Amino acid sequence: MTNKNIYRSLGGLDPELIAKAAPVEKVQKKKKNGWVKWASLAACLCLIITASIVVLPSIIDDIFTGTGESNFIHFADEAVKGECGTITLTEENLTEYKCTFILEKTNDKPICFAFRGYTVLREYLDENGAILQEVQNYHIITPYDNYKEAAINHIVMDDKLIVTVNGVQMDNIPTAPGTYEITIDYSELENVLDRFEPFVDVVGFGTFVLDNELYGK
Question: How confident is the model at residue 22 (pLDDT cuts 50, 70, 90)?
Fold first, then answer.
């Protein structure tokens, strides 16, 4: 029955009875709305707690494993904007175990360049006689504040990188704003690692591909 039909049916009733009945209906409706409101708030609270338990640890872990959404793949000649300014990987020296970046730095936040590789420490047989290898994951970086403490799951060998800034060999990356041509010679890594990944992670900018043929570029 529609509201209009209900109104017509009530037309013959005593107005005082209708007036007495109206507050009861209003209170009941208010209670129902209050129950719905608290149920909605409880559902939202459960959703927030669930997201904090499931999602937050993953985000924190991604910061140190390099798998976060901010760690996009970039290629040579691609100008990439980050929290420290803009950086571009050039085509120069990419086939000589070197990489050259043009960094236009806008603030004094430190950055570093990180290379990854693996070394097989030993081979052994498991209980079923299968040959297994114990692999050590290395994270080789340029000096960067307390990054060594942050990368507790990796062995850091920053002395295997030769860093040149604007033609001058340096021990670290400048933190002051300015434009820098940064060349990193990582050829020594070939001598200490059994397998080297052709990528370099730049803190605050993402991951750059050092071998475009891997992606058909």
Answer: very low
What b/e readout covers 161-186, taking b as 16+ CB neighbours within 10 angstroms? bebebeeeeeeebbeeeeebebbbbb
Angle subtended at Cα 152 by Cα 146 and Cα 157, rounded to the nearest 5 degrees: 75
pLDDT of residue 102: 98
> What is the pLDDT, as a whole number, of residue 165?
96
In whole angstroms, what is the distance from residue 150 CA to residue 166 CA?
29
Structure tokens, 106: 């806008």
Pairing of strands 85-89, 98-105: antiparallel
- Strand residues in 17-159 grouped as ranges (E): 73-74, 79-82, 85-89, 98-105, 113-125, 131-141
Residue length, the chain? 217
Q: Which of 14-18, 84-88, 112-116 comes out lowest in average pLDDT?
A: 14-18
Return d(Cα 103, Cα 118) in angstroms, integer: 28
Give the contacts of 147 (CB within 8 A, at least 6 positions apart). 112, 141, 156, 203
Cα separation, 200 vs 70, in Å, equals 14
Residue 15 CA to residue 31 CA, distance in Å, equals 25
Write 119-122 long-range contacts (CB < 8 A, 24+): 119/192, 119/193, 119/194, 119/195, 120/194
Spacing of C-alpha 37 from chain mean position = 36
